[in-house]
Design brief:
Shape of chain A: globular
Distance between the termini of chain A: 49 Å
Strand order of the largest sheet of chain A: 1-2-3-4-9-10-11-13
Order of helices and strands of chain A: EHEHHEHEHHEEEEEHEHEHHHHEHEHHH
Largest interface: A-B, 72 and 72 residues
Structural class of chain A: alpha/beta
Helix content of chain A: 25-40%
CATH class of chain A: Alpha Beta
Number of strands of chain A: 13
CATH superfamily of chain A: Luciferase-like domain
Largest sheet of chain A: 8 strands, parallel, barrel
Number of domains of chain A: 1
Number of helices of chain A: 16
CATH topology of chain A: TIM Barrel
Oligomer: homodimer
């Protein structure tokens, strides 16, 4: 196996992330999310374990489907309060040398023009270690608070997102030519104006006539992450993403999604392996299988059931307050189109009750929980990668920082011993570390906007 | 004199800020703006000189009035490229203990709902050392790039800004009651939902029905800065600002503006001195008057004339390419309403040519340049404060970091010797350091939104 396994820390700028209620655990630190030291110390630990990146989720909105209000989410601290993830990038980067910082930002809440500057700035401040996790949002409560009736049609959100990212490509790839910034003290030219171009974008959703505000950053377009396994989401990932994040309880379902993304990538003229795929997993590892199992059971006692149901209801759009714990999920109409519903219904071979689902998602969310000794979990990790063709995992926490500390202490050395996990970082930007190239490759749609004058001519025809 | 003089560093996340072309100076570091170390090292130096805060300006847009294009600005690096200022707050705060970070953000480019979360997050990460410099923007190029025909009417921009800040107050002061976050491991309550309120905002420009996303931060509403000396801007400052930033070449003009702000503050039910006022100044100080003068003349050689005219044209809305260097400014119709025009026409007793104005604004922008030994400059600083009733200065740079290094090396000790400048920092948040209280006081409009249920009832009537 020449490709090494990729681990990311799946985080969110909030309390407990996908383990609602576990902030009550005496060793949990996730409630310190509003203190930069929480993040910096974690980043430094992860870097010692050769983690590829943070994958920082985000929502603008809150979970108010359950019981038709947000009380359960508020009470249990389930992803509310939640802070701005982007502001973590600089502090983390400054305190580390290698780890990437994947930051979620929605195409729904900020116009692409000012957002493009945020990306360029973050890429400068992190020396090319930023990734943008592109999402279209799923909580209508967020839309309400910017004066919209709702988030709109799911597939149209992806149409908007498609134009959004193309505006970003035009600004970041096309507006400032390579070498535009001369900083020549003899001629007095800071930037050569002949090499800075209006992008002249006039689309269905956005009008952006002018130039980008920032000078080219180490990666230009930050590495592109995407999460979302709906059919439309898969196509979006196959077209634009360099890393796709998927989740589901069973290997069979993940395998189908990975195959779909890789197939679609080829259809879009990319290589199947131009997209690395991360699957969600929570890993509870200790010296022995028994100790790990005891730890898992101990963690489970702290799950806040209402918090879990609030998240579940938000992810599916279905109010789980209407169901009894013994109701079977295959009799519940879960709607369709959300990441979570797809995860739940994709290759789930078990016929679960609501109670089973709570237990499932209460620790780390809608992915598998691997529990055991280093050897046991290493076997499982390798098996999943082999059977699904994923490239690695976004590892959620039960207790932060402890879950990752255990992974680094027990699992990482075992995987390194087997020769399947990195023992050092590669140099360069986040994209270079993963793919070996610095900018998006020529077969990526962003590349077609580099000659922006040609694009403008073509679009005018 | 019991009140101590306040110094801020007037910065911007770009090259040369208000000294176009001085990036060519061999000792200038401002072109390193995209490296966090530039900012962190500067912050640590400023803190040794007991500077109150950074005052970080910003524009979303570029200067394209001069010759009807942005070429001169691009070529000279005049405020383009320009990065996101907000992302500097965390890294600066983490590397320092006391200095405040005033960050400019416009009410034109982001909806107040997600922006409120950015403020709360920044206030957490800086432990209450963030200030928001509220601006309404003045470059139409920015508006064009978010699909607007222009920025709209100047006074209406302030009406929008007024509603914008009230939405922010409702979210930051009213939505989460004091003590809402319980984090009680016994009861399992992270936040008491009875103490988190929908703000129910339905205004002319914004609809924000729900709750704030963030938990209360050290200052709740960050300290409020405001810049803008138009009559409408002065009223806005008098009503909302805790620190007003003004600029002008002459004491007489500044004195009138300060008196206006203090008078209006009283009319709005505040104390005249609830608003501290900073004036723009550039300070070139050295061992002797002669050495300082030599340094000033040496700096002046690096001014980029086209860059200065590009800035001047953007500030005034008047294309200075139409005029000869010998044309007199009192024969040029400068329009009205912009900060700069007001600065230029307020108490300017000199009849200046365009050439004079270039020389004036080319080093540090539209404020005075104080040149001399520590003793000379200290006399001037004290005289200006005495004659205008300002509280201190936003000190622009000619050469960064050098301009501030000189201030700290020469001027600060002289002022300290005279007992008029701080010799230590007070503890607490930025607001506490300046005013001694942590939250906005009861006579500030924000306070009226703390009982949000009462507000909703009143607004419904």
């Amino acid at each position: 196996m020449s490709k090494k396994i990729i681990f990311n820390a799946f985080e969110m700028n909030c309390v407990g992330h996908q383990s609602p209620g576990l902030w009550k655990h005496p060793r949990d630190r996730s409630w310190q999310y509003k203190d930069l030291n929480y993040w910096i110390e974690l980043a430094q630990k992860l870097e010692k374990g050769f983690f590829n990146a943070f994958f920082i989720a985000d929502v603008i909105g809150y979970y108010d489907i359950y019981n038709d209000n947000a009380r359960a989410a508020i009470k249990s601290g389930a992803q509310i309060p939640v802070n701005d993830p982007l502001q973590l990038a600089g502090p983390i980067a400054h305190a580390t040398k290698h780890i990437g910082i994947g930051v979620t930002a929605s195409t729904t809440f900020e116009h692409p023009y000012p957002f493009a500057r945020r990306l360029t700035s973050a890429d400068h401040y992190t020396n090319g270690r930023i990734a943008w996790n592109i999402v279209t949002s799923y909580l209508d409560s967020g839309a309400h608070n910017i004066g919209l009736p709702d988030l709109g049609d799911h597939d149209e959100r992806y149409e908007i997102a498609d134009e959004y990212v193309r505006v970003i490509y035009k600004l970041l790839e096309g507006s400032w030519e390579e070498g535009a910034v001369e900083r020549n003290v003899e001629t007095g030219v800071f930037t050569n104006p002949d090499k800075v171009h209006d992008i002249g974008h006039k689309g269905k959703y956005y009008t952006v006539p002018g130039i980008h505000l920032g000078e080219p950053s180490p990666q230009r377009t930050p590495m592109l992450f995407q999460a979302g396994v709906s059919p439309r989401g898969q196509r979006f990932a196959a077209q634009h993403a360099e890393a796709a994040f998927i989740s589901g309880p069973e290997k069979s379902g993940l395998r189908d999604i990975v195959a779909g993304i890789r197939k679609h990538a080829k259809e879009y003229g990319r290589d199947s392996y131009d997209v690395v795929v991360f699957a969600l997993a929570t890993i509870i590892v200790d010296e022995t299988d028994e100790k790990a199992q005891v730890k898992y059971e101990e963690y489970s006692k702290y799950v806040d059931r209402d918090g879990a149901l609030a998240l579940l209801s938000g992810w599916t759009g279905v109010d789980f307050a209407k169901f009894k714990p013994t109701d079977r999920t295959n009799t519940i109409n879960l709607g369709a189109g959300s990441t979570f519903v797809d995860a739940l219904t994709h290759g789930v071979e078990r016929d679960w009750t609501v109670e089973d689902v709570i237990r499932w998602v209460g620790i780390g969310g809608p992915g598998p929980v691997f529990v055991g000794s280093a050897k046991t979990v290493a076997d499982t990790v390798q098996k999943w990668i082999q059977d699904t063709d994923i490239d690695g995992f976004n590892i959620a926490y039960a207790v932060s920082h402890e879950t990752w500390e255990d992974v680094i202490k027990y699992l990482v050395p075992e995987l390194q011993k087997r020769g399947v996990y990195p023992t050092s970082y590669k140099d360069g930007t986040l994209r270079e570390k993963i793919f070996g190239y610095r900018y998006l490759p020529d077969n990526h749609p962003a590349a077609s906007y580099r000659d922006i004058e040609k694009v403008k001519k073509e679009e005018a025809e």
